[in-house]
Design goal:
There is one protein chain. The protein has five helices and five strands, in the order E-E-H-E-E-E-H-H-H-H. The protein is an alpha+beta fold and about 170 residues long. Helix 2 packs across helix 5. About 40% of the residues are buried. Bound molecules: FE2/S2 (inorganic) cluster (2 copies). One FE2/S2 (inorganic) cluster (FES) binds next to loops.
Length: about 170
């Protein structure tokens, strides 16, 4: 067992974990943060994406011990006082999800993109999300949602036109 101390969504936890425990399993099974799903366990689908120390990480490909001393933000840590972020609102308003399984990872990856590039083109959105797979939507509305969140009146319900095709 290895002792770790990690801050997740603003709360600091100390735990003894097996060195082989994946961060995704630590979040879900130890901390009960099941908002971060596991879609493949082989770092292909991106569903498990979280923010680790300011950069996105697929939590199924990171060991919990690698997060020791670090700060993790999951999709559950984004809303403040019950208020969604503009990006979360945009996914809702632009119908950027169907089953929702990919959505936490999509939102975390899109958040990372918008932090670095607040006004991406649809092509840049598609490139940024290429590590995140969606089985349901055909991606069109996901791209729309990210573009809506990057627009000046983010999340205000406006319709976003996307020039690229799916
Ligand atoms: S569950 Fe981590 S990438 Fe699919
Ligand atoms: S909404 Fe179902 S996998 Fe993306």
């Amino acid at each position: 067992m290895t002792h770790i101390k990690v801050t997740v969504d603003g709360t600091t936890y100390e735990d003894d974990v097996e060195p082989r425990l994946l961060l995704a399993h630590y979040l879900r099974d130890r901390l009960g943060l099941t908002g971060t799903p596991i879609g493949c366990d082989t770092s292909n689908c991106g569903a498990c994406t979280v923010d680790l120390d300011g950069a996105t990480a697929k939590s199924c490909s990171v060991l919990a011990v690698q997060a020791d001393g670090g700060e993790v933000t999951t999709v559950q840590g984004l809303a403040r006082d019950g208020e969604w972020t503009p990006l979360q609102r945009a996914f809702h308003e632009q119908h950027g999800l169907q089953c929702g399984y990919c959505t936490p990872g999509m939102i975390m990856a899109a958040r990372d993109l918008l932090r670095e590039n607040p006004h991406p083109t649809s092509e840049e959105v598609r490139q940024a999300l290429e590590g995140n797979l969606c089985r349901c939507t055909g991606y069109q509305n996901i791209v729309r949602a990210v573009l809506a969140a990057s627009a000046p009146q983010a999340g205000s319900g406006q319709q976003v036109t996307e020039e690229a095709t799916a």
